[in-house]
Structures are given as C-alpha cells and as structure tokens.
Design goal:
3-stranded antiparallel sheet; 3 helices; 106 residues; 25% strand
Length: 106
C-alpha cells in the first residue's frame, strides 16, 4: 500500500484533465460537489454515488469505555459517526487491482 494521499488539488487537476474545464472551473466544480455531499450528511441524509458507494450518518449511544492505561471506566458520550459502504463494483476493482511486492510476500 502506498503512503500517498490524493488531495483536493489533485482531484481538481484530474477534473481539469478529463473534462476540459479551466483549472478554476474544475476547482469550483469539485468544491461544489464536496459542499453538497457535506451539507447532505450534516443534515443526516444519506449520499449514494452510483458505482462508488454510499455515505450515511449513524447515531451511536452513550456507553462505558475504559482508559487502557489506567483501566478506569470513562463514559463515552453519544455521537454521530460517518459510515461509508463501498459498492460491489468498487470492491471488485479494489480486489482485482495490481498486487504490490509487499502484499505478494516478496
């Protein structure tokens, strides 16, 4: 697995290369899409991107956890968490992708 991260700038550049919009328009388009996804999730809606996956927000109740260092019980407050479920197509693409030397045991 590589240690690289895809940034907004790289995504924007990919849109620029593939779609042919100007660099500024590509950046604006990417920001608009990310803002829409973020706003929908903040309102508790699910976001489904065909052939990619779905994002949803799940509520977790309060529970008791333990401090691993001291063993003391600590209350964990209720919160909302973001959940991503990849599509079958994305799972297949990831599983059928190129195998790195580290994965192959070499």
């Amino acid at each position: 697995m590589s240690d690289t991260t895809i940034t907004r700038a790289q995504l924007s550049e990919a849109v620029y290369q593939e779609v042919g919009l100007s660099r500024n328009e590509s950046a604006d388009l990417l920001e608009a899409v990310l803002d829409e996804v973020s706003a929908a999730l903040a309102q508790g809606e699910s976001v489904k991107i065909s052939s990619f996956g779905s994002f949803s927000v799940r509520s977790k109740g309060q529970r008791v956890g333990r401090n691993p260092k001291t063993g003391d019980e600590v209350p964990i407050l209720p919160r909302r968490v973001l959940v991503f479920r990849p599509s079958q197509l994305l799972k297949k693409k990831v599983n059928d992708g190129p195998v790195s030397a580290a994965k192959a045991g070499k």
